[in-house]
Inverse folding.
């Protein structure tokens, strides 16, 4: 794609204050992102317990690998959800689809907390877990394209980076809540109590969260961009077909696969895999591993908001490329700090990596939304992004665990992070600057 940067000066943009209706609509877009990431965070943080509950084995490594395989399943179903729900969003509007998605996601997550264990129902509990993970995969696949497009379209000129960064911050808060909840349960419950019933509580919390989210989304207004396109007869009958038959849109979809590589690898290695890795490989206590993750998430929450604001002023490309190449530079030294066995050094290394990750994460979703025209935005964005997430994110814990088991090297996560960051950095240099232009129609 053309890498020419817009010459429009930042001060030439206008930014109008958000109305109350716009704020409610933005909140509606955020809430689904929160629940989606909360579920993923909880699953990763209690993966060790789930391995015992659903996949008992004489070999602990095998049980953990099976648990992470179940974690990866929905990510390979996400492109299907993106194609179906994205097509709905481009044909019928974002709001109605987002209401359906949050209902499906909350119910599927809550039902995980009600599944019988292996001791109670044998393999049927694991079968139920896998089936519910498929349902979650469908909902998760439809959420990014619809949810982030909805936010970008409500934001207005000069505020898109800031507004969509709220969704990125919501993901950090969701993961932080899941981390702290898991850390609290791990600290106050015995191992037997955690395996018997404690692991269920974080999943059951998704049910009341889903009710709140559904109410907020019901109060939201439809995207003004979609409403205008509908009024002007620009809504396409088959957005998925148009996305796959337009060379320009196909190229942008390819960018949606490679540009978020650091997002995918960084999220799943740093925040999902890392607690188990620190406990099993580095011999930290479970609580220490979760607390290191919690510190990363707390720092990242503020960093993504700042990154979104900076990108509105200086552009998306600079933030994305600087953050990705920053991870290339500090990845190995910071990972070395994580493996020293010192809680303090682990926190320092984790925070530095979290800052680089946040610099990409805070800008990524608005950048992807800006690559596409309104008529195919949710489906093209969703399919491209979820395909990359499935390949490089959902399978990351399983891949990393397998490579560590095969090689005996504890440096596999760092190698994976650095390599994917390098590819993402070069991809960022290839995109056209979109921060200073209106959304494509």
């Amino acid at each position: 794609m053309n890498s020419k940067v817009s010459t429009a000066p930042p001060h030439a943009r206008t930014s109008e204050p958000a109305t109350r209706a716009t704020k409610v609509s933005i909140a509606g877009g955020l809430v689904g992102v929160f629940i989606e990431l909360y579920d993923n965070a909880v699953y990763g943080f209690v993966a060790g317990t789930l391995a015992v509950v659903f996949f008992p084995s004489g070999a602990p490594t095998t049980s953990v690998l099976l648990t992470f395989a179940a974690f990866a399943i929905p990510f390979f179903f996400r492109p299907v959800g993106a194609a179906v729900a994205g097509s709905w969003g481009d044909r019928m509007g974002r709001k109605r689809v987002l209401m359906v998605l949050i209902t499906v996601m909350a119910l599927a997550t809550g039902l995980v907390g009600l599944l019988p264990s292996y001791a109670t129902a044998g393999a049927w509990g694991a079968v139920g877990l896998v089936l519910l993970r498929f349902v979650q995969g469908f909902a998760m696949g439809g959420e990014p394209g619809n949810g982030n497009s909805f936010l970008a379209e409500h934001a207005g000129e000069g505020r898109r980076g800031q507004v969509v960064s709220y969704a990125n911050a919501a993901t950090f808060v969701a993961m932080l809540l899941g981390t702290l909840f898991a850390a609290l349960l791990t600290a106050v419950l015995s191992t037997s109590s955690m395996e018997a019933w404690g692991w269920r509580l974080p999943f059951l919390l998704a049910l009341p969260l889903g009710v709140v989210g559904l109410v907020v989304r019901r109060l939201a207004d439809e995207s003004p961009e979609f409403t205008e396109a509908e009024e002007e007869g620009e809504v396409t009958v088959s957005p998925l077909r148009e996305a796959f038959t337009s060379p320009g849109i196909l190229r942008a979809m390819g960018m949606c696969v490679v540009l978020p590589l650091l997002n995918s690898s960084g999220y799943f290695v740093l925040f999902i895999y890392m607690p188990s890795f620190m406990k099993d490989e580095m011999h930290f206590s479970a609580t220490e591993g979760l607390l290191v993750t919690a510190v990363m998430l707390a720092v990242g929450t503020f960093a993504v908001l700042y990154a979104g604001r900076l990108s509105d002023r200086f552009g998306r490309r600079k933030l994305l490329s600087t953050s990705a190449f920053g991870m290339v530079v500090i990845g190995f030294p910071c990972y070395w700090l994580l493996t020293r066995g010192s809680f303090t050094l682990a926190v320092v290394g984790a925070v530095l990596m979290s800052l680089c990750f946040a610099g990409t994460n805070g800008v990524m979703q608005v950048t992807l939304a800006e690559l596409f025209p309104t008529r195919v935005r949710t489906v093209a964005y969703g399919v491209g992004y979820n395909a990359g997430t499935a390949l490089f994110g959902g399978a990351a814990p399983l891949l990393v665990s397998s490579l560590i088991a095969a090689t005996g090297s504890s440096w596999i996560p760092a190698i994976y992070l650095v390599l994917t960051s390098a590819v993402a950095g070069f991809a960022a240099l290839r995109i056209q600057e979109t921060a200073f232009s209106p959304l494509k129609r």
